[in-house]
Amino acid sequence: MKHAFTLIELLIVVAIIAILAAIAVPNFLEAQVRSKVSRAKSDIRSLATAIEAYRVDFNKVPLVGAPTWALTTQGNGQYLYAQGVENRSFDLPVTITTPVAYVTAVPIDAFGGDIASDDLYGSMGDYAHYYWYFTKDWFNNAGYANNWRVSNSIQSCDAKTVKAATDPIGSASWVILSKGPDKYWAKVNANEVDCPQMWQYDSTNGTISIGNIMRCD
Asked: What predicted TM-score, i.e. pTM, was given to this entire model?
């Protein structure tokens, strides 16, 4: 004679399933974040290789890309922008993909696409979706030379060694940023962008922590 499950037995089964789900879901989400971090680092590494190949050919790094602002200048006559890939803002220009394909396609940020309401740079349009590219020349020609705090001699988020507002101009020529797992360009203050090494994403602070994934040279 077959016996049906009692209410107590069903509740025990449901409780076990709930416990297993509570353990499995966070681990799954952590794995997703780690995978995106790896993808972002791989994308940025490929873009860095393209930038350096471009520099070898033209003895300068690519201009900062911008939507429909093809080769615009300011009063000093310096070129500040080139047309961005797919008309993206603050990205690599189309010259990185054509006529010579230093990279076949400029990828979307692994953590892009979400613009938080309190994102300091979320109102700037589509550039929140893509890897952010800036150059020392852009800062110089735009009149912000003293704000360039990116140094190729610093690869740590140690605040004791980061370029501060009173330090000399950074030595790096370019920087590429990913929003990182917090999905903000600047969640704390603008120094997350202006001094990216100070706020560099570090998984030892937790898989989802503040800071941008970056590379410079």
From this structure: 0.78
